[in-house]
Design a protein that fits this description.
Among the domains are: 43 residues; 114 residues, Barwin-like endoglucanases (Beta Barrel), CATH 2.40.40. It is globular. Strands 3, 4, 5, 6, 7, 8 and 9 form a seven-stranded mixed sheet that branches. By secondary structure, it is of the alpha+beta class. The chain has six helices and eleven strands.
Length: 242
């Protein structure tokens, strides 16, 4: 029984350590930010004033929109370009030039819906729709566990995925969408930084979250913590009852 307890402890410890280590490496490779701010409209003045906050080392603006596709599934589409540095999607297959006209789609949504590099999907709003070529398949650090709503227990990749377009191409399909998110790198506490940011922006802040609070990250962290608990609890129970 002692051997079994030791084996169980080693297996569970290896599992949580591997997950935690891989997450840390992924975040490092994709230069993951510390905070994400959401607003209906982030202006150029907002960006420049926030950049002037001394505890902030880097800020990038992006656009996000959720659209319906012809097959009734939904996509959260964001912007990036060759100059983007924070929270960069990892391109696991396909084109690496982020300025090209086309779309990069998350791996699990693509696998579930049998979408491949070279496939075409129709995106847009209202009458402004166009067929767009899938240029790449991606993973993204904010969306390790991508759910439609924060209360959802499991991802639904059959009906909801995420994707990226170059900023220039995005503007041709969604010309009226303004910058609505800021990705921020800072060592300051969430509460202290938020106070400073509020005094600098023109429009109300809809949400301000640390990266680990996001619905795409926190369930992944919870799984790691569960495994850590199991690594100590289960061997202890078996050892006690031997």
């Amino acid at each position: 029984m002692t051997f079994f307890c030791s084996l169980l402890f080693a297996a569970l410890t290896s599992a949580w350590y591997s997950l935690e280590k891989n997450k840390d490496l992924f975040f490092e490779k994709t230069n993951t930010a510390d905070f994400i701010l959401s607003s209906k409209n982030v202006t150029r003045n907002d960006i420049e004033r926030i950049r002037s906050i001394k505890s902030i080392s880097f800020v990038e603006a992006r656009k996000d929109i959720v659209i319906d596709l012809k097959d009734k599934t939904k996509l959260l589409i964001s912007t990036f370009n060759s100059d983007s540095q924070l929270n960069q999607p990892m391109i696991v297959e396909g084109e690496s030039d982020k300025d090209k006209h086309g779309i990069w789609i998350n791996r699990d949504y693509a696998l579930t819906n049998k979408i491949k590099v070279g496939s075409e999907i129709e995106i847009g709003i209202g009458s402004n729709k166009q067929k767009t070529k899938v240029l790449g398949i991606i993973l993204q650090p904010e969306k390790l566990y991508f759910v439609k709503h924060p209360d959802d227990l499991e991802p639904d990749y059959k009906n909801f995925g995420f994707a990226y377009l170059s900023e220039k191409y995005y503007a041709t399909i969604f010309p009226n969408i303004k910058y609505n998110q800021l990705i921020i790198k800072s060592v300051e506490s969430k509460e202290g930084l938020l106070k400073k940011i509020i005094s600098q922006v023109d429009n109300p802040i809809l949400n301000f979250s640390s990266i680990n609070e996001l619905s795409g990250v926190s369930p992944f962290d919870n799984k790691i913590e569960q495994l850590k608990s199991y690594a100590f609890i289960f061997p202890s129970i078996f050892f006690y009852w031997q």
